[in-house]
Amino acid sequence: MALRVKRQKDERHLHSIVHRLADIPGGVTVNIDTLVPGTILKEGTVIAKGENGMYNVVKTATITKAATTTDTDYEVSKGNNFKVGDFFAAKVGAKSFAITAINRDDPEKDVITLGTTLGAAVPLGTVVFEAKAESTGTASALKHAPLAVVGESHDVEANENLFASAMLIGVLKADTAPAASAEIKAAIPTIIFI
Questions:
Q1: Pairwise CA distance, residues 25 & 40, whole Å
Q2: For domain 17-58+144-193, is the CATH number 2.40.300?
Q3: Domain range list for the chain
Q4: Mind listing the pLDDT tens digit of every residue in the chain (194 residues)?
């Protein structure tokens, strides 16, 4: 085993968890193949049980600028876990299309570009999510079934395992936690957002 020296500048993380009542014993391994190396998996991020004992991130973001019915660029909050190729939707049961580009250069927002417009106005504050597959009709749904939330923030590093605690029952501050839509909150009723 070789000695590895790593130099980095830590960012201040706002804590979202107010109270923990139950965790998954021993924590979980989060699948980083669907995440972007160099980003942060934030405390309070919703996760779902995946395959081979791994857990997947339920990817969400908040719309920071209202979009029209013809827009293909959608401005979203920083700190989201979307990547090119994910299917993007603004409403369960509505259209979803693949992300073709993401501009993360602006310190205030990310701009997600789709190959095709969602065809509907997307109001400011809407929680967008990763859908199961492309839907040109009215069939979009959450890609993963929410189960728990990550108990602390972690850096996402390429070729590294990401172990995290997973809270099943507890209380989160909604204004500092990653975005969660009404459907996500309904799927994890033991997590209270205040």
A1: 23
A2: yes
A3: 17-58+144-193, 60-131
A4: 577 776 666 666 678 899 999 999 999 999 999 998 888 899 999 999 999 999 999 999 999 999 999 999 999 999 899 999 999 999 988 899 999 999 999 999 999 999 999 989 999 999 999 999 877 777 788 999 999 999 999 989 888 889 999 999 999 999 999 999 999 999 999 999 99
